[in-house]
Amino acid sequence: MPSYIGAIDQGTTSTRFMIFNHAGKVIGSARQEHTQIFPKPGWVEHDPLEIWERTQAVIVGALQKTGLGPKDLAAVGIANQRETTVVWERATGRPVCNAIVWQDTRTDVICSELAKDGGQDRFRHKVGLPLSTYFSGPKVKWILDNVPGVRSKAERGEVLFGNIDSFLIWNLSGGPSGGVHVTDVSNASRTLLMNLETLNWDPDMLKIMGIPQAMLPAIMASSQVYGIATGVLAGIPVAGDLGDQQAALFGQTCFSAGEAKNTYGTGCFMLLNTGPTAVQSQNGLLTTVAYQIGDERAVYALEGSSAITGALVQWLRDNLGLIEQSADVEALAKTVADNGGVYFVPAFSGLYAPYWKSDARGAIVGLTRFVNKGHIARAALEATAFQTREVFDAMNKDSDITLRTLKVDGGMVFNDTLMQFQADILGAPVIRPIVAETTALGAAYAAGLAVGFWPGVADLRANWGQDKDWQPRMDASQREKQYHYWKKAVTRTFDWVE
Predict the structure, then answer these.
(1) pLDDT tens, 243-281?
(2) Within a 10 A sphere around the Cβ of 475, how many other Cβ atoms?
(3) Residues 452-461, buried b or exposed e (16+ Cβ, 10 A)?
(4) What's the confidence (pLDDT) of residue 386?
(5) Over the range 264-289, which residues count as b (16 or more CB within 10 Å of their CB) and which as e?
(6) Which of 182, 187, 327, 426 is the most exposed place for a label (fewest CB within 10 A)?
(7) How far apart, in whole angstroms, are the C-alpha atoms of residue 91 and residue 181?
């Protein structure tokens, strides 16, 4: 068998291809950003063809860097930004419009209309999710309702819907010339269209949303062979597919009920493995499918999502020009001793867990003449930690498990100032693994299990190792005082959009 596994990590701002060895170590990688398109306030789009071009480019780049060829890879897996919605022509592979990104809020009116009869949680018992602009189903409905001619094509099976994973697998496996149209249970559980118990598209949800079944991908396990790649990975099994946050849970080897991880990327996403039981949240969390390995039973998770965390640092860089590169935010934050009384609630796309208020908008509160850009930078970092604390608390309430530590991964975990504040505001240790790119690693693990590269999950657990931990140092009264002011700041963002 070949000695390596490849993983495509297609994220919100960039695409990465990573090559791992049997020990789960990174052998080589390549990464490219893609364009963020903002046509109107609240609208966020990507060009799917640009993403497909960048995906091919990073595959070629990583293989060239390592001197490897496709034949050296046992399989390839995919992790993807989850709810970002693509509709494309079956015959040509051309998208009917730009991809509508998970952060996009244009479906607010659709969600509000659907919530009039039964409220925001009217479908939660079936799909595990509140009605929100976050999820794919309303985005598909918006495309069918607003892009001329698409609905009739959809009813004839001439256009296909998928999150980015489906679009990439279809293109990887031949595109118009025989590409397979599939998704996995973890991605399907983010659409508002899949029944959590049956793991099939729910006919009632399709009818309510007005979405023809003919345009939907087949729902498969997260770890199985879907097809054989053509093009730049010709001959390689495409064998793993996980939404990026579920992939990170998989990469962190959280295979037992009660194990949790938090990924710090464009947004922040905490997932708690709840085992083969779908736990309905009473505290604003999502019930989602974590993964399914082959013919085994699906494993579920509770998830808390914060839309804007790493994206807030990019906003300081790109929109305000406070820093030249994202990594500079820590140095700027360290020019001050504390936040100076400033709290920054980045509700740019509304508030996600545990509030689910799409009419909220961002706010910076507590400003005085004393405040400078260092305080703004520190408040931006602290916003990530405060949002994580809110989800952490909700998880402890929803599950019968008290989370005593937090495994962390993603780009922001190399920011020591943030990680120390995270431990302080949680009152719990924060642990970073040796391989922090756990999203790509999870996709590689899923693909490797499917082709026997790793015999079982015990082999994956043996690969996990701790790199660093942060212990809480803040006293309890200071912690609760700061958290109180954060909660107060959050209320200032409510009901802004009328």
Answers:
(1) 999 999 999 999 988 888 998 988 899 999 999 989 988
(2) 11
(3) ebbeeeebbe
(4) 96
(5) bbbbbbbbbbbeeebbebebbbbbbb
(6) 327
(7) 13
The strands making up 268-275's β-sheet, listed across from edge to edge, are 286-291, 299-306, 268-275, 260-264, 406-409, 430-433, 466-470
Residue 494: which region, alpha, beta or left (left: phi > 0; alpha: psi -120 to 50)?
Answer: beta
One-letter identity of residue 340: G
Please give the pLDDT value at position 410.
85
Round to whole Å and give the CA distance between 388 and 301: 16
pLDDT at 296: 96
- Three-state SS letters, the chain: CCCEEEEEEECCCEEEEEEECCCCCEEEEEEEECCCECCCCCCCEECHHHHHHHHHHHHHHHHHHHCCCHHHEEEEEEEECCCCEEEEECCCCCECCCEECCCCCCCHHHHHHHHCCCCCCCCHHHHCCCCCCCCHHHHHHHHHHHCCCHHHHHHCCCEEEEEHHHHHHHHHCCCCCCCCCEEEHHHHCCCCCECCCCCCECHHHHHHHCCCHHHCCEEECCEEEEEECCHHHCCCEEEEEEEHHHHHHHHCCCCCCCCEEEEECCCEEEEEEEECCCCCCCCCCEEEEEECECCCCCEEEEEEEECCCHHHHHHHHHCCCCCCCCCHHHHHHCCCCCCCCCEEECCECEECCCCCECCCCCEEECCCCCCCHHHHHHHHHHHHHHHHHHHHHHHHHHCCCCCCCEEEECHHHHCHHHHHHHHHHHCCCEEEECCCCHHHHHHHHHHHHHCCCCCCHHHHHHHCCEEEEECCCCCHHHHHHHHHHHHHHHHCCCCCCC
Give the full edge-to-edge strand order of the sheet including 85-89: 45-46, 99-100, 85-89, 159-163
CB 435 within 8 A of CB 26: yes
Tokens of 86: 């693509």
Segment-wise mean pLDDT, segments of 10 residues, the chain, 498 residues: 94 95 94 95 95 98 96 97 96 97 93 92 92 94 96 94 98 96 97 96 96 96 97 96 95 89 89 91 92 96 89 93 93 95 94 88 96 96 95 86 84 92 94 88 97 94 91 95 97 91
pTM attached to this predicted model: 0.87
Per-residue model confidence as pLDDT tens digits over 168-184: 999 999 999 999 999 99
166 in Cβ contact with 99 (< 8 Å): no
Give the total residue count for the chain.
Answer: 498
- Cβ burial 8-40 (10 Å sphere, 16+ → b, else e): bbbbbbbbbbbbbeeebebbbbbebebebeeee
Give me 272's structure tokens.
Answer: 């708690």
CB 111 within 8 A of CB 133: yes
